[in-house]
Amino acid sequence: MARIRCIKPEFPQSQSMGEVSRDARLLFVELWTLCDDHGKARASPRMLASLLFPYDDDAPGLIEGWLGELEAQGCVERYEIAGAHYLRVVNWSRHQKIDRPSQSRFPDPPLAVAVASRGLDDSHQGIKDRGEEGIEERGGAAGAGRAHALPESWRPDEEDIAWAARARPDLDRAALDSETERFRLHASAHSRTAHRWGAGWRLWVSKARVAASAPAAPSGAGGHGTGGSYDDDGQWRVRLKSYRPGKFWLEGDWGPRPESGQSRVPGHLLSEWRGLN
């Protein structure tokens, strides 16, 4: 049964929410209605998409990325037990005050079980919080179930690459390789640690900017260049190819949506796109 939950007024200003997409923020809040009184819930992406986004056809293909964003910021912790997928909202008690919590129907994360068996709390794990959601950035040494530095041999797996093809069709494999190297350098330079590096990589790629591949747009060419950079017709066609109103659109980099009336997409390409929809 869904539960009534509250949202604190300061929630939109939290640092971690400023680091994730709007869809991920909505998912985070909607997850609270599925969580039990201890902040735990089943976490199959397909099931979550059907329950939380029943009217959005693209949700099943995008929700894994949103979960990855939340996990990269330490908002949720995902884990698997006996083949079943679960999640725990980190710092649940900061978000919800439960007067008489019911007994949890879901198992605890493996690390929480191990900590409880030793009679330790988070302060003994070397955990340091960042922002309101408590991301574990510089925890203890790498180990089972604990945050660890990015391994030298780490590369995005096939699922990560497939996600990037759906979420960022404007980035080819060479661009993804370049972003992966930048991601590795950033993680090393800032001594980052994480439980799942694929989630952090997806967040990085979601914010990647496309390198300019043509000279600056001349004056009166449609106003689709900003800051001296220029997006050519080929890049816009890739972005528009599978786009439909309400689907994925990186407004921070590409500007207002094509249907907004304020789009940076060149007029002749907008006309082509409208003719196909």
What does this entry show, briefly?
The chain has helices at residues 22-34, 45-52, 59-72, 92-95, 110-118, 158-167, 173-189, 197-206, 233-241, 251-254, 267-275; strands at 40-42, 76-81, 84-89, 148-149, 193-194. It is mainly alpha-helical.
Q: What fraction of the residues are assigned to beta strands by DSSP?
A: 5-15%
Number of domains: 2
CATH topology heading of the largest domain: Arc Repressor Mutant, subunit A
Query: Which structural class should the secondary elements be placed in?
Result: mainly alpha
What low-confidence regions span 5 or more consecutive residues with pLDDT below 50?
112-144, 212-230
Query: What's the number of helices?
Result: 11
Mean pLDDT: 75
Structural account:
The chain is globular, with a radius of gyration of 21 Å. The strands form two sheets. A three-stranded antiparallel sheet has the order 1-3-2, covered by helices on one side. The chain has two domains: 11-146, Arc Repressor Mutant, subunit A (Orthogonal Bundle); 216-277, no CATH class. With 277 residues, the chain is mainly alpha-helical. The chain has helices at residues 22-34, 45-52, 59-72, 92-95, 110-118, 158-167, 173-189, 197-206, 233-241, 251-254, 267-275, and strands spanning 40-42, 76-81, 84-89, 148-149, 193-194.
Features:
277 residues; mainly alpha; Arc Repressor Mutant, subunit A; three-stranded antiparallel β-sheet; two-stranded antiparallel sheet; 5 strands
